[in-house]
Write a structure and sequence with these properties.
Length: 725
């Protein structure tokens, strides 16, 4: 064994303030949860006594009461695991490597409270070796100091990969010696606001030094400092340079590299042009001089490929190699990139589109378009990092969009992030499961313009990512996590991290029971502890309303309105949920219009399953259509019908619009239908806010078949349930 001392550059900032982030809990005696650690250790026992200690004792061990040592015999804990014992004799921390000792110290600093450090015995090790965050600095650039601050927070929570998205249509962000025009002509643009720039008529790049231009770039020395700073905290920085798409800014500087030879004519490299390969090798050579990471991220996502279909150079290359389609052309280029990177002793990693046309032999895939591509890659023997957008996109809304800064869409509150399991049981064989390297949370910054907003979106959801990546699945529990999370959010704020303060909204979970013909509604909240009061008739709750203590049972209809009360007063906005165990549940439904397989929600019967959707069309409850909707419900017999309703969503950022109108028809025989009513939307098509509209038809009709028609104006239309009474 040998002593190790790696404490000099532990914290970003100066003095005791840097410890605020780590000293997140005022530890109490009792069970393991009282230690309030994030991520939760693999094995931990907490006793009812405390060792008097302070931060100086942890950071400057004296070798008598504080013993840190590497121990090569601890192979079962792996390279990042550690053993920690705190008792009357002091602190004993052992690990196989310096990384393990570092993570053990993060645990000690989180354990430190007003009473000192509790007596504990911990054996800890990560579930996955790759525990990452991604940061897009192309759409909006952030200071070097902000990146260092993020690295500090990451390392405190045992996150160990920072994926920097350095290039995209928003601007090229790293100095290049061989290609200086990438920054002098591709790093600045006419407008700082991405949405205004991207959708505007004057979507142009400007030369460096132009008055009023937005942008910037990092020097190589900037990034060398970031890499070194991260390495001291056992964080590896993985650079991303986009190939072959998302490269519009490159062609402003070097237009000969695109198929048309003209700027602003597309975002894809000309695969048939030898100069593209020369550029690729030149740029990646300089990237690898700055970043020593094993992996070099080469993008590979969302290439348009249209120009390749008519480009003489690309078509000639396809004929030469007998390629059947442009997917194979992309694969050819990715193979060439991999050959070059491998020749330098490195490996490529890319978004899951690099699977298209055949995956490069040693490539690693980051699976973002759901999980299937990741599992497919693992079955093929390729390493995978799981980052499905529905769970791992930290730029999606984290609370009701009408209360939040504008975002691209989606809805991933911290509970949704925490619910993700990168490796569900029986999804892969043990050998295939070994190819799942870990998990990554992604922060894209089209709508994140400054550092305060960046921290607001990344934290505290990044802490959920940390626990997913580190803690054994069987030890993870949402109710336990949110208890710890509330304390850590307070400490993030004390440190100066502008973390989202957690929502006062109520999350409603439904369980439809078709045997007892009822719906059980459970309430939850991110805040803890909380007092929740509610009504079921649509009225505002007050201090005399029922106190939530157990699930609410609905046998017919309820309009639940609930809120959090502090000292007898409603705090924050109320949350609402309409619940109906209606006549249409589980009845057969047929569609006269084309369905879109990508948003089938719960399947063909999703509109009649009793489950109403939440705040995102990605929650598995909303059914989406690119076509008009025309569906028919069979009630099984002639039935008196008094009310029919359907609720629709609008969120124009991702192209979701209200229908122009909704119509109701009733029929006795399923062939001849009578129009019972039509409602036009009253929501403007250019309204940028999340909007819902319920189209309610009330009357006295009789029939067996109920038909709903909805006119799609453009893009997608989404509905969550057809309610029939």
């Amino acid at each position: 064994m040998r002593k190790t001392n790696l404490f000099k550059s532990f914290c970003y900032g100066a003095g005791a303030a840097c410890l605020l982030l780590l000293n997140a809990c005022s530890t109490k005696t009792g069970d393991a949860s009282s230690a309030c650690l994030i991520p939760r250790p693999a094995e931990m026992q907490v006793q009812g006594k405390f060792l008097k200690a302070d931060s100086a004792m942890i950071l400057n061990p004296d070798g008598n009461r504080v013993r840190y040592a590497t121990d090569g015999s601890l192979t079962e804990l792996g390279a990042e695991g550690y053993k920690l014992v705190v008792d009357a004799g002091g602190i004993d921390l052992r690990a196989m490597t310096d990384a393990g000792l570092f993570y053990g110290r993060q645990t000690l600093l989180q354990l430190l409270g007003d009473k000192g450090i509790p007596y504990v015995e911990i054996e800890d090790y990560p579930r996955f070796g790759y525990r990452g965050l991604h940061l897009d600095v192309s759409r909006h650039i952030f200071s070097k100091e902000e990146i260092l601050k993020i690295i500090d927070v990451m390392s405190s929570y045992k996150l160990n990969r920072l994926h920097l998205h350095l290039t995209d249509a928003g601007g090229w962000r790293l100095q290049m010696d061989k290609y200086p025009r990438l920054t002098s002509h591709g790093a600045f643009r006419t407008e700082s606001d991405w949405r205004l720039w991207w959708d505007g008529k004057d979507r142009k790049y400007l030369p460096e030094g132009t008055e009023g231009a937005y942008g910037g770039y990092y020097t190589k020395d900037d990034m060398r400092q970031v890499v070194a700073y991260a390495a001291e905290r056992f964080v590896t920085v993985i650079p991303e340079v986009e190939f072959p798409g998302h490269s519009e800014e490159v062609f402003m500087a070097y237009p000969e590299l695109c198929c048309t030879g003209k700027p602003y004519s597309g975002g894809d490299f000309c695969i048939g042009n030898p100069k593209s390969y020369e550029f690729m090798e030149g740029v990646l050579s300089e990237i690898m001089e700055v970043f020593p990471s094993e992996y070099i991220h080469i993008g590979g996502d969302e290439a348009g490929k249209q120009n390749w279909k008519t480009c003489p150079k690309c078509q000639a290359l396809m004929r030469k190699h007998g390629m059947k389609d442009v997917n194979e052309l992309q694969s050819y280029f990715i193979h060439k990139v991999e050959e070059f990177v491998n020749s330098k002793g490195r490996r490529i990693i890319g978004w899951d589109e690099i699977l298209e046309g055949g995956l490069a032999p040693r490539a690693t895939v980051i699976s973002w378009r759901g999980e299937s591509a990741g599992f497919q890659s693992a079955r093929m023997g390729h390493d995978v990092v799981m980052t499905p957008g529905n769970y791992m996109y930290l730029d999606f809304y984290q609370a009701n969009p009408n209360t939040q800064p504008y975002a691209i869409g989606g809805y991933t509150p911290v509970k949704k992030v925490y619910s993700y399991n990168p490796l569900p049981a029986d999804s892969l064989t043990p050998e295939q499961a070994g190819h799942i390297l870990g998990v990554q949370g992604n922060t894209w910054t089209e709508y994140i313009k400054d550092e305060q907003h960046l921290e607001y979106m990344m934290f505290p959801r990044a802490l959920a990512v940390a626990e997913i990546g580190w803690t054994p699945q069987e030890k993870r529990d949402w109710n336990d996590f949110k208890t710890r999370l509330n304390r850590h959010v307070e400490t993030l704020h004390e440190r100066g991290v502008n973390a989202f303060p957690l929502s006062y909204e109520i999350d409603f979970e439904m369980a439809v029971d078709t045997v007892t013909r009822q719906i059980e509604v459970t309430f939850d909240a991110e805040k803890y502890p909380v007092e929740i009061r509610y009504t079921t008739d649509g009225t505002m709750p007050d201090a005399s309303s029922p106190l939530y203590s157990s699930p609410v049972i609905v046998k017919d209809s309820a309009h639940i309105v609930a809120g959090i009360f502090v000292d007898g007063k409603l705090t924050g906005n109320v949350s609402e949920k309409k619940v109906d165990y209606h006549r249409g549940i589980n009845r057969p439904i047929s569609y006269n219009s084309e369905l879109y397989a990508g948003y089938m929600a719960g399947g063909m019967n999703a509109l009649l399953d009793g489950y109403r959707g939440g705040l995102t069309y990605l929650d598995g409850r909303w059914q989406g259509y690119l076509d008009n909707l025309d569906c028919v419900v069979d009630l099984g017999a002639q039935t008196e019908i008094h009310k029919v309703s359907s609720r629709w969503m609008q969120l124009i950022g991702p192209g979701v619009f209200q229908p122009e109108y909704v119509e109701l028809y009733v029929s006795d025989d399923g062939r001849h239908f009578t129009l019972c009513g039509r409602h036009d939307t009253d929501i403007k098509r250019d309204d940028p806010q999340l909007r819902f509209q319920e189209y309610v038809f009330a009357g006295n009709w009789e029939g067996r078949y109920v038909r709903i028609k909805a006119k799609n104006p453009m893009g997608f239309i989404f509905t969550d349930e057809i309610v029939i009474w």
